[in-house]
């Protein structure tokens, strides 16, 4: 009886009811960034599940994000750390994100370097309000060490209406 009580206490103490279970949906889904299409599938899944761990694996250490700030009339850019902070903030503050990749407008590359321009549509729902809709083009430079490694973004130029 004592052993059963100790076992029960150990199980209860080691179980945190406030910690969410790990969601293996993406890893079990078969999505992989080993192909160009796979890169975009994983990217969409990271947004859909609001998962910065998955998203972070898509960005190379030397990643650069750039966009046009129309209010200031400037082209701005930031690195991987700032991109991860901005994306984590977006994921945390949104109720849902619906990213749809559109047509490939331009692409060229090799087995280890690839440039691709693709249209996209993103609906963002913040705090049960009407969705914020963003349309545009994403210009990516992707790289990998060998043709067997997953693709990572080294540059993303956002050309959207946001």
- The total beta strand count reads 6
Count, helices: 5
Number of domains: 1
Assign the structural class, choosing from mainly alpha, mainly beta, alpha/beta, alpha+beta, or little secondary structure: alpha+beta
The ordered string of helix (H) and strand (E) elements is HHHHEEHEEEE
Task: Specify the oligomeric state.
Answer: single chain
Descriptive tags:
6-stranded mixed sheet, about 160 residues, alpha+beta, Nuclear Transport Factor 2, Chain: A
Give a topology summary.
Layout: H1 2-14, H2 25-29, H3 36-48, H4 52-57, E1 59-69, E2 74-79, H5 80-93, E3 96-109, E4 113-125, E5 132-143, E6 152-160
Parallel strand pairs: 1-6
Antiparallel strand pairs: 1-2, 3-4, 4-5, 5-6
Written overview of the protein:
There is one protein chain. The chain is α+β, with helices and mostly antiparallel strands and 162 residues long. It has one domain: Nuclear Transport Factor 2, Chain: A. Helix content is 31%, strand content 40%. It contains five helices and six strands. It has helices at residues 2-14, 25-29, 36-48, 52-57, 80-93, and strands at residues 59-69, 74-79, 96-109, 113-125, 132-143, 152-160. The protein has a six-stranded mixed β-sheet with strand order 2-1-6-5-4-3. The longest helix is centred in the middle third of the chain and has 14 residues, at 80-93. It starts with a helix and ends with a strand.
């Amino acid at each position: 009886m004592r052993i059963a009580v100790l076992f029960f206490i150990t199980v209860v103490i080691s179980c945190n009811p406030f910690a969410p279970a790990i969601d293996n949906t993406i890893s079990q889904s078969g999505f992989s960034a080993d192909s160009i299409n796979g890169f975009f599938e994983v990217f969409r899944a990271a947004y859909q599940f609001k998962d910065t761990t998955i998203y972070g694996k898509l960005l190379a250490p030397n990643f650069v994000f750039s966009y046009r700030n129309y209010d200031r009339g400037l082209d701005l850019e930031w690195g991987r750390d700032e991109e991860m902070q901005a994306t984590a903030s977006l994921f945390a503050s949104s109720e849902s994100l619906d990213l749809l990749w559109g047509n490939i407008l331009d692409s060229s590359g090799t087995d280890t370097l690839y440039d691709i321009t693709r249209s996209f549509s993103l609906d963002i729902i913040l705090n049960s309000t009407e969705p914020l809709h963003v349309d545009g083009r994403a210009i990516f430079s992707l790289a990998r060490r060998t043709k067997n490694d997953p693709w990572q973004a080294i540059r993303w130029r956002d050309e959207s209406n946001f």
